Amino acid sequence: QVQLIESGGGLVQAGGSLRLSCAASGRTFSSYAMGWFRQVPGKEREFVAAISNNGGSTYYANSVKGRFTISRDNAKNTVYLQMNSLKPEDTAVYYCARRRGYDLGDVPSLQYQYNAWGQGTQVTVSS
Fold this sequence. Notes:
By secondary structure, this protein is an all-beta fold. The chain has no helices and eleven strands. The model has no long low-confidence stretch (mean pLDDT about 95).
């Protein structure tokens, strides 16, 4: 069973940057697309970004497009989320997830298509 461990969260001022990392166990990391989601207490978890297994395709939520960049290093079994121009509304717990297949499909944001999740890392953006 794959384990996903997020890191890199923290407290940052509005306009600042953070880079989240998600390290995956196992030998099949390069076979799966990966995604990032976030959740604020009391609200539903929402999609942030996704990347295909080879990094050739990416997809972003409109709220982060142009500010966040998802990438991956298959040699290191790690997926990243570079977050720039952070806003207070980006404050949330961020989760990485492994998608069921190698590509992004027609709707990359559907949560049921992800079958492994990390424990999350807190990102707090102060105004």
